[in-house]
Each structure stands twice: as structure tokens, then as C-alpha cells.
Design goal:
The protein has 287 residues and is mostly helical. The chain contains eleven helices and four strands; from the N terminus they run αααααααααββαββα. Strands 1-2 form a two-stranded antiparallel ribbon. A two-stranded antiparallel sheet has the order 3-4. The chain starts with 8 loop residues before the first helix and ends in a 25-residue tail after the last helix.
């Protein structure tokens, strides 16, 4: 028996999450983000702080996404959220909405995409904080020292993680820039990305040069860093590997894995480090 398309936005959210293949913890985070946009579609301010997680979103028809006013309402909600949350969180919420809308359109449940004109918030440059020692680097977010890097790169970790960590450290590029790389952008013999008029190239050292060919093997296109499972339905083609069907690795997942792998190395033990601590001292962001 064919399942009827959902009429209500909240039910469409649950159908999307059920098909996403995400773990329960990730589904909970995605649900909170998607419910936030429901308040915007209802032309009501979304709760903030702890109340945002507990609040029951308004019940509204999924067809509101096709209403001519939907883009304007979402744009106003973005401006409002920008005043109360950090840019990275807002950009992740926008990405979550876009992925859900793409999936709903693929099911034929809605016709348009009111998120098309929404633009990610610019990310501020982060100052490099002074500090030293294992505890100081972890607690203050300062770049990792030589001993810490040596211990990190000596850990038994999957090829994907080791390559990402080396590339972030050796290139000094922003995490978002590295995760956005595609395999056809790489100039492996030159240890750099192919230059583009709209984006500076990246360069890397011997550690990355040793690992990248192993990671890329057999892939001529698609995202460089991939998830462990196939991409959920509705994932944009640019974020899906044409060879394996897997999705582009997200910032959130990369950060979770790095913190988990570095918990035994941090001081106090169990705290873990952050990906931004891989940036060499004196680097303020992407190249």
C-alpha cells in the first residue's frame, strides 16, 4: 500500500528524519533545527535558550513552503536568529532546512524551494589565543604544540581522520574550506589544489602528501571527505560521491570524531581537543 504524502509540516519532518539514516542523537538535533523554521512559517518568533528544545512547534501545513510569502518569512527568521545565535549554528540550521526541502521536493510533496535566496552567515575570524602546555592549549583553544601533534598523529585512527587532521594543520585553512574540497580540485604531485579565480589555492606538506593518494584512490570526482554510510535521499549531487554514493562529511561529525579521538590526550583527560586547535600558530583562518 502506497503511503500518503504528509499534509502537516511536523509529520514531513519525521518522515525525512526516518529516511535520513542518521543516528538518534543527530535526528534530535536536526528535529530541533527544522522545528525552529516552523515558527518562522507560522510568522511567530521561535523560542530561544532551553525553551527552544522543549517547545512544541506550531501545527501547520507543509504547503506553506510553497506560499509566496515563505521566502520572506524565512529571511526574517534568519535575521532574527542571527541576533541570538552564532553564525556556525545558524549556517548548520540553514543547511538542515535545505536538505529537508530538497528531499520533500524529490518526493513530490512540495513544488518550490523557499530557501534558495537564503545565504550563509559570514564566519568571523578567530583570534589565536596565547597559552602553552597541554592543559592550556586544550582549555584556551590555543594551537596544539609539537608534542601534542606528535601524539595525535601517532594514534591509531582511520585514514580519513588522519588525512583530515594533517591537511587542516599543514594547510592552515578553515575547516569549512577543507571539508568543501572535491577530489578533482587536488593537484597531488604539486601538493596543492588547482587555483581558481574565486578562491585561493591550498598547499600542504609531506604528511598530507603521503595520505591523500590513499584516501582518493579510484575516485575522480565528488567530495574528498566522505561519511561512512550512503547519502540519504535528497542529498544534493554536489555533496554525494558518484562512485560510492556516500555523502560529504559534515563539520559536526568531523568535530565529534576529533574530540572523541583526543580525549585520552587532553588535560584533564576526557575533555578532548577541537579541530580549530590544529591550525598553526599565527593563522587566523582560511587561505
Amino acid at each position: 500500500m502506497t503511503e500518503l504524502p504528509p499534509v502537516e509540516y511536523g509529520l514531513a519532518v519525521e518522515r525525512y528524519l526516518a529516511a535520513s539514516g542518521l543516528a538518534e542523537g543527530s535526528r534530535r538535533i536536526y528535529r530541533i533545527a527544522l522545528n525552529t523554521w516552523a515558527w518562522a512559517l507560522a510568522d511567530r518568533p521561535a523560542p530561544t535558550g532551553p525553551e527552544r528544545r522543549r517547545a512544541r512547534p506550531p501545527v501547520l501545513p507543509l504547503a506553506l513552503l510553497d506560499h509566496p510569502d515563505a521566502p520572506e518569512r524565512l529571511h526574517a527568521a534568519v535575521a532574527h536568529r542571527a541576533d541570538s545565535t552564532d553564525p556556525r549554528t545558524l549556517n548548520r540550521e540553514l543547511s538542515t532546512l535545505r536538505a529537508a526541502v530538497a528531499w520533500w521536493r524529490a518526493q513530490g510533496w512540495i513544488d518550490g524551494d523557499p530557501s534558495t535566496a537564503l545565504r550563509p552567515s559570514p564566519l568571523p575570524a578567530e583570534p589565536v589565543e596565547a597559552g602553552g602546555g597541554a592543559g592550556g592549549a586544550q582549555a584556551g583553544g590555543a594551537p596544539l604544540g609539537e608534542d601534542q601533534l606528535r601524539a595525535l598523529f601517532a594514534r591509531r585512527a582511520p585514514l580519513r581522520e588522519q588525512t583530515l587532521w594533517h591537511l587542516l594543520h599543514e594547510s592552515g585553512a578553515a575547516i569549512e574550506t577543507v571539508l568543501a574540497l572535491d577530489t578533482d580540485q587536488l593537484d597531488l604531485p604539486g601538493r596543492r589544489t588547482h587555483p581558481r579565480s574565486d578562491r585561493p589555492g591550498l598547499r600542504w606538506g609531506t604528511g598530507t602528501a603521503r595520505l591523500l593518494p590513499l584516501l582518493v584512490a579510484g575516485r575522480a570526482g565528488g567530495p574528498l571527505f566522505l561519511t561512512d554510510r550512503r547519502a540519504p535521499a535528497g542529498t544534493p549531487a554536489a555533496d554525494r560521491c558518484p562512485h560510492t554514493g556516500r555523502a560529504r562529511l559534515s563539520y559536526r561529525r568531523a568535530a565529534e570524531l576529533f574530540t572523541a579521538h583526543t580525549r585520552p590526550l587532553s588535560e584533564p583527560p576526557g575533555a578532548g581537543w577541537t579541530l580549530r586547535q590544529l591550525r598553526p600558530a599565527g593563522r587566523s583562518g582560511g587561505r
